[in-house]
Automatic annotation (TrEMBL):
<dbReference type="Pfam" id="PF07654">
    <property type="entry name" value="C1-set"/>
</dbReference>
<dbReference type="InterPro" id="IPR037055">
    <property type="entry name" value="MHC_I-like_Ag-recog_sf"/>
</dbReference>
<feature type="domain" description="MHC class I-like antigen recognition-like">
    <location>
        <begin position="4"/>
        <end position="165"/>
    </location>
</feature>
<protein>
    <recommendedName>
        <fullName>Ig-like domain-containing protein</fullName>
    </recommendedName>
</protein>
<dbReference type="GO" id="GO:0009897">
    <property type="term" value="C:external side of plasma membrane"/>
</dbReference>
<dbReference type="InterPro" id="IPR011162">
    <property type="entry name" value="MHC_I/II-like_Ag-recog"/>
</dbReference>
<keyword id="KW-0325">Glycoprotein</keyword>
<dbReference type="InterPro" id="IPR013783">
    <property type="entry name" value="Ig-like_fold"/>
</dbReference>
<dbReference type="GO" id="GO:0006955">
    <property type="term" value="P:immune response"/>
</dbReference>
<comment type="similarity">
    <text>Belongs to the MHC class I family.</text>
</comment>
<dbReference type="Pfam" id="PF00129">
    <property type="entry name" value="MHC_I"/>
</dbReference>
<dbReference type="InterPro" id="IPR036179">
    <property type="entry name" value="Ig-like_dom_sf"/>
</dbReference>
<dbReference type="InterPro" id="IPR011161">
    <property type="entry name" value="MHC_I-like_Ag-recog"/>
</dbReference>
<feature type="domain" description="Immunoglobulin C1-set">
    <location>
        <begin position="175"/>
        <end position="242"/>
    </location>
</feature>
<dbReference type="InterPro" id="IPR003597">
    <property type="entry name" value="Ig_C1-set"/>
</dbReference>
<dbReference type="InterPro" id="IPR050208">
    <property type="entry name" value="MHC_class-I_related"/>
</dbReference>
<dbReference type="InterPro" id="IPR001039">
    <property type="entry name" value="MHC_I_a_a1/a2"/>
</dbReference>
Amino acid sequence: GIHEFTAMGILDSRVIHYFDSTTQVKTPRTDWMKECLEPKYWDEGTRSLKDKQQWFKDYMDILKERMNQTNNEWYTLEQWRQGCEGEEQPDGSLKYSHGLDMYSYDGDDFLYFNDSHSVWVAPVKAAEQTKRKWDQEQKVHNYPKGYLEIDCMEWLKKYLTYGGKDLSTTKKPEVYVFANNAKSKTNVVLTCMATGFYPLEIQIHIQRNSRILTKDDGVMSTGTRPNGDNTYQRRDSVEIPTQRPGHLLLSHTSTNWC
């Protein structure tokens, strides 16, 4: 269901911990997170996320006023994404590459931290007031860079160590190809569905006459979507003449299939 507040930790596209406003408890979503981290970690995480939940609720009221949505009966969505990415070095160590600290409102970028220049950036006018306030408060201004480059990287290294083989395991996609009638009797809608794969990066191409078809040819794709079990799915389709069938080209780290 839809919760007032939801938070999750994601590592290499896998959900590793979860919290929502209904359960009010931070819980592990992998066996290795449950086994490697002590109860203190989960207790402190729960308290922290409860505080964040209240902050979001208070700040949502402020944003609604700025957006003139105080009488809006529709749902509004505020999202915060924070994380870091590291690059493996020749000696096997992990070095900070870049980080993300971004707030969105109703699907649009609202405020984000530029870690290269150590400044908050306000893409919309309604965020300018918050940007000025956070830039002036030294503690708030310095926190994102320090957290992303130090604290976040330390946790990233720990999680990768804890996850071990589980994180390096790949899962092959189950591939289904089928054709449905199109509006035109001389055409069919060719569809390819790949599901149950991990990691999420996958390439699907439909080819006709030795040429890969694109959006300009009418190719439609759902994009890669989660299945809910730490695997992913994607569906691509295109309308083509019945007498000239297409070919499927699929590439995934776990396999190559044509």
